[in-house]
Write a structure and sequence with these properties.
Layout (H helix, E strand, L loop, with lengths): L3 E17 L4 E16 L2 E15 L5 E2 L8 H8 L2 E2 L6 E2 L28
Antiparallel strand pairs: 1-2, 2-3, 3-4, 5-6
Amino acid sequence: MIIWGSRAKEKTLASGSFFCPSCQLDTSYDHIRVSNYFTLYFIPTFPMENLGEYVKCRHCQATYEPSILNLSRIEILEATQPWLCARCQNKNPASEGACVGCGTARADAAPSAQYDMDDE
């Protein structure tokens, strides 16, 4: 009898230092790829497909899209800072596209600052 199947396996592609938006520190990270491996007798033998990649902060364990490594500290801080509504002066989270107080759309078309993949 032959026992075969598949399972996901993580592989660290790179490590380094970056500015983490969650812990607000210059800290180390791991760039990880998740692949689906063919298994034979429960032993992963070869990768069949890549399922995705992410960057994980070693300090707070938060996960982000790999594109965060291309952003500077200033760009990350600007993207995560709350914004003021031009109409009612309400302070809104950076992830909101409209004011939570009055519903007015955000004046600047800033990109979403949410890189965290924990919700997926």
